[in-house]
Amino acid sequence: MRAKPPLRVWIWPLPAVARRLWRVIALASVYSLSVYLFAGAVIAQLPGWSSEFGLVNGIVLGVLVGIRTRAAFDRWFEGQKLWGEVLIHARSLTLKVAYLVRTDAADRRLFVALVGGFAQALVARLRGIDAQIEAPLGVEPLPPDARHVPAHLAGRLYALAARWHREGRVDLPGLWALEANTRALLDAAGHCERVAQTPIPASFHALLRHGLLVSLILAPWHLIHALGLWALPVQALIIYFLFGVELTAEEIENPFGTDVDDLPLTDYCDRVRRDVADLLTTAEPKPTGPPATADAISGTIPTVTDDRTE
Prior knowledge:
mainly alpha
């Protein structure tokens, strides 16, 4: 059970986008103070409906920012679910190898290297550095023109399962069971790439940012007209939340990076490698006779709970 955070986290640390926010707030405060000092005569002649206009503008911007934030968070949450699926299918595949296949020590080391390497290579691909990834230790070198390292390592898993079947170490239903989880790992990798490589439409970005810029320019005029010098802290508070939410959405719309708000992919990889190795080493010894069928031992396979990382 995760420990509850202390109450001080409500105040500190500041959000990761705070440094960028302070610059916008400082610029807006200087601009608002200039309007207050040098445009008082113009503000005094503004019509009474200018304040209502500012209110309507704020409501429209709030709706746009809400849509933007929801879209960005949906991408972050989907990335989290997909990496939970990678972890779940890696465990399930390992349990099937442990209980359906008569493996030796060399095959177990190769299997751990392939599954752990798959997760690591997927992280590298999502971050755009997959060309720098080499084959994991204990795995034959990848082709020099390999462009999709996770797919190559999944292919090695298919080849390993096929060899086990040829050597009589696993029956045909067991081979199908191994293939299902290997395919699921590839499916999760493809969905992760879809999230990483499909940006939010640029037109919506441009529309929202233009709206925020127009609000930044017009807000001092109607706020000073209604609040006087108190408009400066009020505008700073509005900017902190409106611009802060937009900058936060910008941070999390690609959840596979290295920023503080991105998913802890290194921890996911470590957990995959650790769990795979642990499940293989603690599995019950296989009988020395013919391989058991999947139907015969299906009741002995432990249940893997859906403990997706939050």
